[in-house]
Inverse folding.
């Protein structure tokens, strides 16, 4: 990269973060004006200050942390199960036209069933226990993740596979030693996107049917018209999602620098 | 050594059948065989059949007495794009083939041979395209193939790097002594590198003419400009109607 390109890149990056913070500042300003002016009753819309102070109070009480831990545990249990199926099925489906023809129609169909619509049947099958939450996260994540992984595996340039085969690789070797490492950066990116979706699903599942977790706390706050607490919990939900997202972005950039360089070339 | 016997290959696209190769027969023994032809004449398809990436619809490809039924370690290949594994450094790329059968590649010798001794720990994105292509060549040689296929390996390189790569290929051919089949659409490249030149025509892909290169025996083909130009003209006349199609 030339020094001019580097400078242009740095400038663009700098301007990008400027606009990011500008957008955030605008939103906070409008939110503040909207709530402090009394244009809307605090029972319906908490101010930024109330939101932050309620969240601080919740964190100091400590109960909310155990609810957050419960939600995160549900998220990871369902998500890991979904990935344990999605990764091998996606790679196999992306590497073989026959398997793709077998799996793709099934997965494409299930994509059109919203996670919320699966709640009643999940309660019928699994009751209100933890397994039901895992199932909803699993069901809501699996079809999308598998299709994305399948697309990533299918988009590998055929020359990589031809080279591997001509060097003596078997089909199994090609999958494990070529396809898997080649799609790893895409895989982490897919996990990042799908984890965000799964986080939304687990909170939804808890809002509908749970006696613990952040979703359950949200519904309690709404019932008792604790709007400040409601906003504080929403902020916490957002922050947890943001931390997961940024961590995976960081992991992808630091572990797979070669992929980023390749994209640039 | 390599016998291509009455090979035809067809493809279907939108319900239409297209003949990429029609009744192609060819024998390759020692030396460098150049397959010369315009885009779409089936030269890469022919190379794919020799490499075992696909099977002929009619005819046979026989290598060392056995029919080729799939890719094998005895047939090495270098593509136009280096296609190095981007997550591996140079040494690991070169060692990939031997490591599959639990062997160790002599990557130091190979890196020396391709002039990249100091780049063993570099990742592909740290190398120029010319250097990447040299690593791809070393990777193909690491498996000690009995024949080397090269599919327009210099097409993406600039003129100087292309010339360097060509002389590297000739040096390697001298040392390793394996037959090489090189696909190109560049007449000058064909004359300076090929012991034998196979000219192909398109629609359908067929062999139009076979020449034993009269200039290859001269130590420097370009020194005998008149003969070089005459032969180049002869090949151009053969290719012109194909390019016009």
């Amino acid at each position: 990269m030339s020094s001019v390109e580097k400078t242009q890149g740095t400038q663009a990056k700098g301007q990008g973060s400027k606009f990011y913070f500008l957008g955030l500042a605008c939103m906070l300003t409008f939110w503040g004006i909207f709530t402090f002016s009394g244009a809307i009753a605090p029972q319906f819309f908490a101010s930024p200050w109330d939101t932050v102070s309620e969240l601080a109070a919740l964190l100091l009480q400590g109960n909310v942390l155990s609810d957050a831990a419960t939600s995160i545990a549900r998220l990871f249990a369902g998500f890991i199960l979904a990935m344990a199926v999605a990764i091998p099925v996606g790679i196999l489906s992306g590497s073989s036209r026959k398997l793709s023809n077998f799996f793709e129609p099934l997965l494409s169909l299930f994509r059109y069933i919203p996670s919320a619509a699966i709640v009643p049947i999940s309660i019928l099958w699994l009751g209100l226990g933890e397994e039901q939450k895992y199932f909803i996260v699993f069901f809501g994540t699996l079809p999308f993740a598998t299709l994305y992984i399948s697309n990533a595996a299918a988009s590998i340039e055929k020359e990589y596979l031809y080279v591997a085969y001509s060097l003596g690789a078997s089909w199994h070797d090609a999958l494990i030693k070529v396809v898997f490492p080649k799609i790893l950066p895409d895989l982490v990116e897919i996990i990042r996107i799908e984890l965000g979706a799964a986080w939304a699903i687990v909170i939804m599942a808890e809002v509908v049917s749970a006696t613990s977790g952040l979703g359950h706390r949200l519904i309690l706050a709404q019932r008792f018209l604790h709007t400040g607490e409601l906003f504080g919990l929403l902020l916490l939900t957002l922050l947890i999602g943001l931390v997961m997202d940024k961590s995976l972005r960081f992991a992808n950039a630091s572990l797979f620098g070669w992929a980023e360089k390749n994209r640039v070339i | 050594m390599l016998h291509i016997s009455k090979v035809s290959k067809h493809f279907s696209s939108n319900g239409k059948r297209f003949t990429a190769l029609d009744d192609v027969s060819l024998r390759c023994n020692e030396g460098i065989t150049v397959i010369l032809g315009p885009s779409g004449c089936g030269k890469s398809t022919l190379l794919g059949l020799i490499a075992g990436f696909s099977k002929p619809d009619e005819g046979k490809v026989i290598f060392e007495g056995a029919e080729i039924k799939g890719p094998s370690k005895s047939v090495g290949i270098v593509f136009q794009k280096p296609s190095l594994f981007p997550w591996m450094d140079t040494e690991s790329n070169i060692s990939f083939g031997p490591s599959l059968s639990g062997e160790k590649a002599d990557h130091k010798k190979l890196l020396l041979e391709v002039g990249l001794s100091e780049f063993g720990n570099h990742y592909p994105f740290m190398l120029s395209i010319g250097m990447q292509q040299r690593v791809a060549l070393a990777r193909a040689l690491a498996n000690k193939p009995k024949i080397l296929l090269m599919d327009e390996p210099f097409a993406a390189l600039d003129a100087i790097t292309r010339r360097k790569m060509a002389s590297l290929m000739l040096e390697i051919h001298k040392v390793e002594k394996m037959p090489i089949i090189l696909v190109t659409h560049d007449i000058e490249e064909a004359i300076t590198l090929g012991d034998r030149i196979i000219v192909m025509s398109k629609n359908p892909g067929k062999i139009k003419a076979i020449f034993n290169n009269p200039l290859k025996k001269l130590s420097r083909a370009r020194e005998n400009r008149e003969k070089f130009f005459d032969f180049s003209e002869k090949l151009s006349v053969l290719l012109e109607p194909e390019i016009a199609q």
Chain B touches chain A through 27 residues (CB under 8 Å). Helices of chain B lie at 43-51, 90-100, 107-113, 129-142, 159-176, 187-193, 225-244. The mean pLDDT of chain B is 88. Strands of chain B lie at 2-13, 16-28, 32-36, 58-63, 66-67, 75-78, 147-151, 180-184, 196-201, 206-212.
